[in-house]
Structure formats: C-alpha cells, structure tokens
Amino acid sequence: MLNIILQYLNQLPKDYVVMIVGALPISELRGAIPLGLSFGMPLVKAFWLSVLGNCLIVAPALFLFVPVTNVLRRFKIWARFFDWVFERTKKNSDAIQKYEALGLAIFVAIPLPMTGAWSGVIAASLFKIRFRYAFLAIIAGVICAGLIVSALCVLGILSYKAVTT
Q1: Averaged confidence pLDDT in the chain
Q2: Domain residue limits at 39
Q3: Alpha-carbon distance 2 to 64, whole Å?
Q4: Counting Cβ atoms within 10 Å, is residue 162 exposed (0-12), middle (13-18) or buried (19+)?
Q5: pLDDT (tens digit per residue) in 72-101
Q6: What distances in angstroms separate CA 51 from CA 21, 90, 100, 112, 119, one per listed residue?
Q7: Whose CA is closest to 52, among 35, 82, 29?
Q8: CB–CB of 49/36 below 8 Å?
Q9: Gyration radius of the chain's alpha carbons
Q10: 25-42 residues labelled b (16+ CB within 10 A) or e (exposed)
Q11: What's the pTM value of the predicted model, to 2 decimals?
Q12: How many domains does the chain have?
C-alpha cells in the first residue's frame, strides 16, 4: 500500500507533494518544509506551499470534525481511538482552556508531535471555540510553526555546511 502511495506521489509535481505532506496529520509543516528543501526549493517557496497545504484542511476539518466523529464513535474501534485522541489533546492543552483562541494559537505554533493544525482542530472542537476564532488562531499558529521549522532548517543547513567545509 505504501509503495502505491509513493509511486503516485512521485508522478505529481513537487509543489503538490509538499502541499499534500503539509496537509497530512502526522507530518504537517514539520515534514513538508524539510521535504521542500530536500527537493531543492527555495525556503520561501517551501514555507508557503507547506503553510498552504496545512491551512487548506483547517476550515473543512473545523466544520466536519464533530459530525464525522459522532458517526464514527458508533463503532467500538473508532470510539476507543477518539477517546485516546481526546485524552492526549486534553493532556496537552492547559493553555487552550485558560486562554481559548490565544492558547489555541500557541498550542498550534509549537512544532512538536501531537501539536499542529489537526490537533488544533480537535482542541477547538473539544473546548467549543467558535469557528472564526478557532480558524484565525489555527492559521496564526500554523504560520508561526512554519517560521520556527524554517528557522530550524536554515540553522541545520548552515551547521551542516560549516561542519563539512
């Protein structure tokens, strides 16, 4: 299955691949920006394609997360999965409970595992943050996370070049 996906992605233009990786819940910006740089893209292009890919899922996910979750929770395996996801999100979201939209932006902006746009959507749904505030907070957090990841990539590239020369 993974080979089929990789073959399909190899046929797409590199710009689309970066956007798709940016939209995926596991990789998001943390994977898309370094991928774009590995393709030889300029940093600015890799940044904006990654941010765009990550942001494209926010509005549909905010609208659809609760209804889809309610349907899937009827099945035992999905109920256990969502219970696990909700508990993980609640455990990492003290700032969201306290500061709501600002806390949500900060939560999304930290480029660590289990934070990002997808987790932000889950947190916004759990804490019932209104759409417009959640949307803007998640977008702001994605841009900040992209800047952090970009800076870390540049520092890594500069350190690598310093060591190898």
Answers
A1: 88
A2: 2-164
A3: 27
A4: exposed
A5: 999 999 999 988 888 877 776 777 877 888
A6: 10, 25, 22, 16, 15
A7: 29
A8: yes
A9: 17
A10: eebbbbbbbbbbbeeebe
A11: 0.86
A12: 1
